């Protein structure tokens, strides 16, 4: 049975060949509305502890409202994709590598051609939002638009504090049990994310300088009650990308697609319609 629900499209596996800079990888992925072959594609990039399963049915519901196909996948180290070896630590530029190498390689393997990419919307949450921004900056013509939900563009103290608190929840609380439902190797998922964000070298990570390369429509979304970041994140995006639109959601935390989906969907639908 599919991990989302028994009626959901099948989860498949894509093999990414090895390159000089990395080993071969196997990624789990899922097409939504696959029969709508002429429709634009929305690529969904999950959060730092996310996976296909953790999105639940929000990507499907959004694609139905937009009239889009959808592509959801688990990054290396997450879900049913190739796990991170226990001794491997993600490098400081791990999100750049996901945007510049892994996502383009997956699109190549799946046969998404240049014409389809030009009509593609990249939708990311949290770390996935940062990866979406980095992809849009690196490949400014290989997408139609980008939607970054609770993205990180630099490291804030509030983010580090919340991630440090997650360590205690994982080792002493029930977070490990809850996450294990969504990841084949739960320690791979958690410590890959936790270790790099708490690495002192990562405190200097900042992608604001590259954002000015983004030419396509950009919507940045942030909740006022986000425990992992402040409005300074999307305000910085607006400073570097003057054409960006901001959606600031009241009474909403770090996961708008779970906590306030109606507000988030309305903001996205209006933005895509304008664009």
Automatic annotation (TrEMBL):
Residues 43-189 form the AB hydrolase-1 domain. InterPro entries: AB_hydrolase_1, AB_hydrolase_fold. PANTHER family: ALPHA_BETA-HYDROLASES SUPERFAMILY PROTEIN, HYDROLASE. This is Pimeloyl-ACP methyl ester carboxylesterase.
